[in-house]
Amino acid sequence: MVIFALKNSALEAIERAQNLAELETSYKAYLGKKGELTLILRSLANLNEAERKVQGKEANDLRNLLEKRFAERKKEIQREEIVIQEKLAIREHVDVTAPGKRLPKGHTHPLTLAQTKAEEIFQTMGFTVAQGPEIETEWYNFDALNIPANHPARDMWDTFWLKPKNAGHLLRTHTSPVQIRYMEKHNPPLRIIAPGRIFRYEATDASHEFNFYQLEGLMVGKEVSVANFKAIIEEFYRQFFGKPVAIRLRPSYFPFTEPSFEVDMRWNKGAWLEMMGAGIVHPNVFRAVGYIPAEWRGFAFGMGLDRLAMMKYQIPDIRLLYSGDLRFLQQF
Question: Distance between CA atoms of 200 and 211, rounded to whole angstroms?
Fold first, then answer.
């Protein structure tokens, strides 16, 4: 009775197996080292000779039957899996001769377009592109630029100070620190531009952002003058906007230049637009980097890349540049 019941349950388990893993589990349950039939075969030694002959024959016959049926079922499952794989292969067939799908092209951000164009123009005039960190020290952002602590000129820059404030770290308010770092490591004469992101604690509107891009420039030599600066900026605007433009210089004040001036540009024969601040490098700035003011002169300037991009591509609101709106970006 035990052998008969075991035979029926084992054969049912073999038929229920849907994959090789399930079949292997059933095999171990009946014919494994601790399988039910294996335990019966081991227990035959405890029977008398007459019982051992009868039950031994029945158990061995069942083992041979199950071994055969397990092997047959294994081949059946393997054939079934091959059929399934072939059907999947047909369904997922790739025609390598078919034309590929054209991937959509990305669009270059207008700020990147403006910065790349500006860098190319200044490089043709002998300027090197310099970079610096966005997290700056108080020394590079203010002190070395002739803006000492408690100087009222610091109110001109709404600064994001990093905690703890007494550590003197901040998000740079201009890329002028790049000029200081570059002059510390290079001897004059030199020409550099420093494009990059800057941060100001300002309210956001159509023409202001707390995070925007600036391009500053510096030229140092023996006989550098305002006339040199004017000629370079006029040529830059001519190439950038693709047409000659008129500019004018208005007296102004910046602590790191003396004299200082604002640069205005006449746009489309209309009103004058303020475009940048500039001036002759202050002697104290040269002293901070180890230059001798009596031997060297230079001019420095700073303009907003955002404004250049807005004017060139007729963008009415600076916030569009940072919106991530694909409808806007796909126009470029």
Answer: 6
110-329 CATH fold: BirA Bifunctional Protein; domain 2 (3.30.930)
Buried b (16+ CB within 10 A) or exposed e, 16-53: ebeeeeebeebbeebbeeebebbebbeeeeeeeeeeee
- Of 294, 299, 286, nearest to 187 by C-alpha is 286
Burial 86-111 (b: 16+ CB within 10 A, else e): eeeeeeeeeeeeeeeeeeeeeeebbb
Give the H or E element holding residue 137: strand 135-137
Query: What element of type H or E holds 328?
Result: helix 326-329
% of the chain with per-residue pLDDT over 70: 97
Give CA–CA dist 131/154, Å, rounded: 23
Q: Residues 47, 52, 54, 60: what is their CA dihedral angle, to the nearest 10 degrees?
A: 120
pLDDT at 3: 75
- Would you list which residues are annotated within the binding site? 258
What pTM, to 2 d.p., does this model score? Answer: 0.67
pLDDT at position 37 over 90: no
Neighbours of 304 (CB within 10 A): 19
Cα distance between residue 113 and residue 118, in whole Å: 9
Which 8-state DSSP code applies to residue 206? T
Q: Is the peptide bond before 104 cis (omega within 30 degrees of 0)?
A: no
Residue 23 pLDDT grade (very low, low, confident, very high; cuts 50, 70, 90): confident
Confidence of residue 328 (pLDDT cuts 50, 70, 90): confident
Query: What residues does each domain of the chain span?
Result: 2-91, 110-329
Q: In this predicted structure, what is the pLDDT of residue 1? A: 57
Work out the number of other CB atoms within 10 angstroms of the CB of residue 4: 10
For range 258-262, the mean pLDDT:
94
**Alpha helices (H) along 92-150:** 110-124, 138-141
In this structure, of 8-12, 177-181, 230-234, the range with the lowest mean pLDDT score is 8-12
How many other CB atoms are found less than 10 A from the CB of residue 151?
13
CA distances from 269 to 143, 172, 243, 245, 312 (A): 41, 35, 12, 9, 15
Binding region for Mg(2+): 258
